[in-house]
Amino acid sequence: MENTIIQNKTFEFAIRVVNLYRYLCEERKEYVLSKQLLRSGTSIGANVREAKRGQTRADFGMKMSIALKEAEESLYWIELLEATGFLSGSQSDSIKADCEGIVKMLVATTKRVYGDTSQ
User: Fold this and answer.
1) For the chain, what is the radius of gyration of the CA atoms?
2) 2-111 sits in which CATH class?
3) Which of 10, 12, 63, 65 has its CB surrounded by the most CB atoms within 10 Å?
4) Alpha helix stretches (DSSP H) within the chain
5) Which residues are within 8 A (CB) of 28 and not within 5 positions of it... i.e. 6 or more apart?
6) pLDDT in tens, 19-41
7) Considering the entire predicted model, what is its pTM?
8) Cβ atoms 41, 73 nearer than 8 A
9) Where is 114: in which H helix or E strand?
10) Could you give the CA distance from residue 16 to residue 117 in angstroms, rounded to a whole number?
11) Averaged over 76-100, what is the pLDDT?
12) Alpha carbon distance 49, 44 (integer Å)
């Protein structure tokens, strides 16, 4: 059940990222940072989806770990877009909160897979 929740949340997040990318390109004429966010933000769900078909527990865990890294990277780009004035705080708050929620879910998942409590 949780895997389905993660899949849904990461897919919805990817849609938000695509829409934000369009906005940044069309309205703000920002192409470099937004492209980085597009890549990392859509990669989260792709890795979660791929993990679903992992051949082993280790394979599943590796894909979820990659998704976690992509989510952390996405947070970085969102924060950088805000810090450089391409997004206001109110524009970034909601998508940042969504990404932080995904990070928490992925941390919990990878902890269960690896039994690691240090993340």
Assistant:
1) 15
2) mainly alpha
3) 10
4) 2-26, 32-52, 57-83, 89-114
5) 86
6) 999 999 999 999 999 999 999 99
7) 0.92
8) no
9) helix 89-114
10) 31
11) 97
12) 9
